[in-house]
Every structure is written in C-alpha cells, then in structure tokens.
Amino acid sequence: GDPGCDRHRCVHREYGSMSASESVTVDSDAYWPADVDAEEAIVTSWFVQPGTQVQEGDLLGEIQVEKVAIEVTATTTGEVTALLVDEDAAFERGEPLLSIAPRTDE
Question: Under a CB-based contact definition with an 8 Å cutoff, are residues 22 and 4 in contact?
Fold first, then answer.
C-alpha cells in the first residue's frame, strides 16, 4: 500500500459511497481470542468475494492471530459488498475485515 495513506481512512473512503444502513462491517475484534496479547493478525484465506450471498453463521474466511487459526463467520445474512483486508495481509485488532449488506426481504 501507500505508506503516506492512513489505512483506516483509506479503507473507509473506498466504500464511502454506500450509506451505513446498506452495509455493515465485520470487525476483527469480535473474533480475537481473549488470552492473546497480539495487536496484529493476518488474513490467511477468504472463501467469499464481493457479491457472494451469505447466511448468518456461514464461514467467510480465516485469520491467524499469533499461531491461532480463527474462523471468520457471517454476523448477518446478506451479500458481501467488500473484503477490506487482502488475503495474506496483516491488519490491526479492531479493524473491519469485510462488509456485508444485510438482506431485508423477509
């Protein structure tokens, strides 16, 4: 990436055209193991891409925190709109991993 770019702001600018109500971000904090002090992790694999329809609880990808592999699951039913961290890329604790547009048609 561009070292002169603040990661958080860049990421948010990319999908800034979407209103908050249309898309929810899945934050890495939710998957962090309680007993791990590390503040950085790596996305080891994504099983979805933008446009993939997911159900709540679906396996979306895996992250690795220190030596622990953790499954990232969908927090909501809907459509993946963006993967915010690339595969094999490092991210900091609390950063959003991906965004999902919830499906509201009951």
Answer: no
